[in-house]
Amino acid sequence: MTGCAVGMATMLTLMTVADLDRVLAIEVGAYSHPWSRGHFIDSLAAGHDARVLIEDQVGLVGYSVCSAGVDEWHLLNLTVARDRRRCGLGSRLLDAVVAAARDHGKSAVWLEVRAGNAGALALYRRHGFETNGIRRNYYPDRAGREDAVLMSLSLASPAAAA
Fold first, then answer.
1. Is the pLDDT of residue 151 over 70?
2. What percent of the chain shows pLDDT beyond 90?
3. Does the annotation count 124 as an active-site position?
4. Cβ neighbour number for residue 34 with a 10 Å cutoff
5. Given the residues 55, 124, 139, 146, the one annotated as active site
6. Which listed residue (112, 138, 139, 146) is catalytic?
7. Does position 126 have pLDDT exceeding 70, yes or no?
8. Residue 150: phi, psi to the nearest 5?
9. β-strand 108-114 against 130-141: which pairing, if any?
10. Given pLDDT bands bounded at 50, 70 and 90, which one contains residue 86?
């Protein structure tokens, strides 16, 4: 299925091992160096906040994985299936990430994103994330290494309250 269906309902639920086949299919289709099944299993075993986004008539279309720091929430992975991008699903997932951070009493959400991932950078900026620095050669890339942009959202900020 391609394109954005008007009025399609979504449901966010906790990720389970039973979701991993579909999660991995999306992950492999999205990245040159995807997380392995082991990465997801380790995240679930560690008690990370892992959620899947289910869309009516389509099924699992996205997911997020976050870990809790002392006072921060760390977004480790947020991915939407390629054929469901630009339909607002990334925003839906990111809103849930921010809400979970608030629910856990965290003061900020932190993440790293590939410097070349214009779509993700735009999404995070639209949601009020600010650039805090660059991690040089952070990500493996087909051509060698790629920088990561370190970003954060203060949960005390007006943008975070929206």
1. yes
2. 73
3. yes
4. 15
5. 124
6. 112
7. yes
8. -90, 125
9. unpaired
10. confident
